[in-house]
Design a protein that fits this description.
single chain; 152 residues; alpha+beta; 5-stranded antiparallel β-sheet; 3 helices
């Protein structure tokens, strides 16, 4: 399969096209990943129904049995659990960092060690999250898988 990237000046919105004569296993895998990555998170914000691309979500958090998705501009209350979020959007770069939080790895600016063997995650918007040490091994393993997948 070939991958062609073309820069078009004055393009109003980025788009992807897939040309094929038959759908083989490689093409099915690509379509599956794109469907997950380009899907939307739905919920309510200020009593209005909203839908945002999962790629815009910085992190998900559960507080008092309610799940929230945080973007740069809003906090969306969802009707999903964190496990549902991970099942639905795992190919979008989401990794659990604590019992109550899942982060979008593409929104991470950098990581820093903490005194208590925990890791501080600095997001691109300046927010900080704490990764519990029990999730560090799984986090690094998932990060490595994403890195390998992106190199293909």
């Amino acid at each position: 399969m070939r991958f062609i990237k073309t820069k078009e000046h004055e393009l109003k919105e980025n788009y992807l096209e897939l040309h094929y004569d038959k759908i083989d296993d490689e093409t099915k895998e690509l379509i599956s990943r794109l469907d997950t990555t380009l899907s939307n998170v739905e919920g309510s914000c200020e009593e209005k129904h909203v839908s945002v691309p999962v790629t815009e979500v910085l992190y998900f958090e559960t507080v008092d049995r309610k799940t929230f998705a945080y973007t740069d501009k809003m906090c969306i209350e969802m009707r999903l659990t964190l496990n549902n979020v991970l099942e639905m959007y795992s190919d979008a770069g989401l990794i659990r960092i604590s019992r109550s939080a899942v982060v979008n790895v593409y929104k991470i600016d950098h990581l820093q060690g903490d005194l208590n063997m925990r890791t501080v995650i600095f997001l691109k918007n300046g927010e900080k999250l704490i990764m519990n040490r029990g999730y560090k091994k799984e986090f690094l393993s998932e990060l490595e898988k994403i890195k390998e997948r992106n190199q293909k």
